[in-house]
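pls design
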C-alpha cells in the first residue's frame, strides 16, 4: 500500500504537557488521510497551531497491555484470541479462573510456555495462581486489577490496558490498532459511561450483595443482604460497559492509590452487583484530573436486544457485515469456535489457523500456507490495512466536537 505523507504537530509528551495545544490526528499509511482537530484535553480552548513536521518525526507506535481471561472450558478460546491479538511489542496476561480444572490450566500454561514467539519476546504471562471469580461479583474487578498490577510491574512501558474475555475477538489487526492509536494523546481513556443510572438505582445501587469469592475457597454465587443502603453522596455514581481501554496514567492512579478515591470506591463496590459495570466509571468521572480524558466508547461491537437483556446476542455469520460497518476494533460475544471467527480470521486478519495475525514485523514467505511470522523483521514497522481506516473513522467520530466533550462524565 502506498505510503502517504502525514504530518503531526505538538505531540503531547507524558511529562511536559503544554497548557494549550492543538492536535491534528493523521492516521497515515492508508490510502486516505483523515485529520481531526482534537483540542486540548486540559483546557477548554486551544489557540496554538504549528507548522508541519516531517514523517520521520511521527510519534512511535504505542504499546498495549492486554488481559484475556476466562473460566472453565475457555482455554482454547483464550489461545485463539491471544494469537489473533499478538504483536511482539505488546504485553499479555492470560488468566483461567479457579472454576477451570487443573489440567485445563496446565494445558494453557504449556501453550504459553511453548509457543516460539512468546518465548522469543517474553511478552506473554499466565497468572498461574488462579483467582476465584464470581460472575457479577467484585472478584471480577479484583481479577482485572490483579492483572493490571502484574502488567505495571512486569510489562515495561505500555500505554493502554485493554481488558478482554475469551468470548471477545478483534476485528482489526494489531498493526491497524497500533497505527490508529499512534496519533492519539496517550492519556485518553476509552470507557463507555453515564450517570443516568435509571433502574440501576433500585436494582444495583441500593441492594447490598456479598461475594463469597472474597473469603471462601469454593465457588458460590453472590447473595443479598436484607437491608438496603442509600445512594452515595460523597461521590457520584456512573455506570457503563465492562469493556474499556484505559491509559497507563489512569491505571497507575487506580493501582498505586496515592489519592484515596480509587481505594474507597473499590471498597464501596465490594457490595455492589455487577461492579465491573461501575467501578472504573465512577472513579474516573469523580477524579478531576481524569474526567477530561474520557472518550465515551467501549470500542466494542456488541449486539443487544431491545430492550437489553442480561446478556448480549451471540454473534454469528449473519452479523459479519454489521460488525465491519461498526468500525469497532473488537466484538463480543462469540460462541466458542463459531464459523464467524474463521471468516474474521481470513477476511479481516489474514490469519491462518494456529498462527498469529501477521503484521509489518513478519517478513517470511506466505507460500504454501507457511507462516510469514516465522521470520521476524523490524518490530516497529507497521503495515496497517483497511482496518486502520475503519478504526480511523470511528476515532474521528468519537473525538468530534459533537461527541467528545459533550460525552464526558454526563
Ligand atoms: C476539564 O474541562 C473543563 C471544561 O472543559 C474545565 O473547566 C476544567 O478545568 C478541566 N479540568 C482539568 C482538571 O483540566
Ligand atoms: C474485564 O474482563 C472480564 C472478563 O473475564 C469481564 O468479565 C469484566 O467484567 C471486565 N471488566 C472489568 C472492569 O473488570
Ligand atoms: C510449495 O509446494 C510445492 C508442491 O507442493 C513445491 O513444489 C514448492 O517447492 C513449495 N514451495 C515452497 C516455497 O515451499
Ligand atoms: C525499524 O524501523 C523503524 C521505523 O520504521 C526505524 O526507525 C528503525 O531504524 C528500524 N530499525 C532497524 C534496526 O532497522
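designed seq:
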Amino acid at each position: 500500500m502506498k505510503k502517504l505523507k502525514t504530518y503531526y504537530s505538538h505531540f503531547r509528551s507524558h511529562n511536559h504537557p503544554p497548557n494549550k495545544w492543538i492536535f491534528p490526528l493523521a492516521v497515515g499509511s492508508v490510502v486516505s488521510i483523515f485529520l481531526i482537530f482534537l483540542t486540548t484535553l486540559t483546557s477548554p480552548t486551544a489557540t496554538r497551531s504549528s507548522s508541519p513536521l516531517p514523517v520521520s518525526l511521527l510519534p512511535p507506535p504505542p504499546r498495549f497491555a492486554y488481559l484475556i481471561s476466562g473460566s472453565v472450558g475457555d482455554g482454547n478460546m483464550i489461545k485463539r484470541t491471544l494469537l489473533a491479538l499478538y504483536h511482539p511489542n505488546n504485553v499479555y496476561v492470560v488468566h483461567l479462573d479457579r472454576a477451570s480444572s487443573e489440567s485445563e490450566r496446565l494445558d494453557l500454561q504449556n501453550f504459553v510456555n511453548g509457543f516460539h514467539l512468546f518465548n522469543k519476546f517474553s511478552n506473554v504471562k499466565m497468572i498461574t495462581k488462579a483467582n476465584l471469580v464470581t460472575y457479577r461479583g467484585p472478584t471480577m474487578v479484583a481479577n482485572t486489577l490483579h492483572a493490571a498490577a502484574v502488567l505495571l510491574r512486569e510489562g515495561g512501558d505500555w500505554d493502554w490496558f485493554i481488558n478482554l474475555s475469551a468470548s471477545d475477538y478483534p476485528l482489526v489487526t494489531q498493526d491497524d490498532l497500533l497505527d490508529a492509536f499512534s496519533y492519539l494523546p496517550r492519556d485518553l481513556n476509552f470507557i463507555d459511561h453515564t450517570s443516568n443510572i435509571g433502574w440501576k438505582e433500585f436494582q444495583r445501587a441500593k441492594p447490598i450483595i456479598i461475594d463469597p469469592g472474597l473469603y471462601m475457597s469454593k465457588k458460590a454465587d453472590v447473595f443479598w443482604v436484607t437491608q438496603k443502603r442509600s445512594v452515595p453522596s460523597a461521590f457520584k455514581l456512573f455506570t457503563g460497559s465492562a469493556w474499556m481501554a484505559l491509559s497507563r496514567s489512569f491505571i497507575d492512579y487506580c493501582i498505586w492509590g496515592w489519592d484515596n478515591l480509587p481505594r474507597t470506591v473499590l471498597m464501596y463496590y465490594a457490595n455492589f452487583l455487577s461492579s465491573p459495570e461501575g467501578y472504573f466509571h465512577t472513579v474516573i468521572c469523580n477524579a478531576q484530573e481524569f474526567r477530561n480524558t474520557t472518550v465515551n466508547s467501549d470500542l466494542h461491537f456488541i449486539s443487544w436486544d431491545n430492550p437489553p437483556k442480561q446478556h448480549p446476542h451471540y454473534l454469528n455469520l449473519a452479523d459479519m457485515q454489521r460488525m465491519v460497518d461498526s468500525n469497532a476494533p473488537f466484538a463480543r460475544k462469540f460462541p466458542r469456535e463459531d464459523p464467524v471467527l474463521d471468516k474474521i480470521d481470513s477476511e479481516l486478519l489474514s490469519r491462518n489457523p494456529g498462527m498469529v495475525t501477521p503484521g509489518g514485523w513478519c517478513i517470511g514467505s506466505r507460500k504454501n500456507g507457511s507462516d510469514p511470522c516465522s521470520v521476524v523483521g523490524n518490530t516497529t514497522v507497521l503495515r496497517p490495512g483497511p482496518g486502520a481506516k475503519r478504526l480511523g473513522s470511528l476515532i474521528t467520530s468519537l473525538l468530534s466536537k459533537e461527541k467528545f466533550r459533550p460525552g464526558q462524565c454526563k
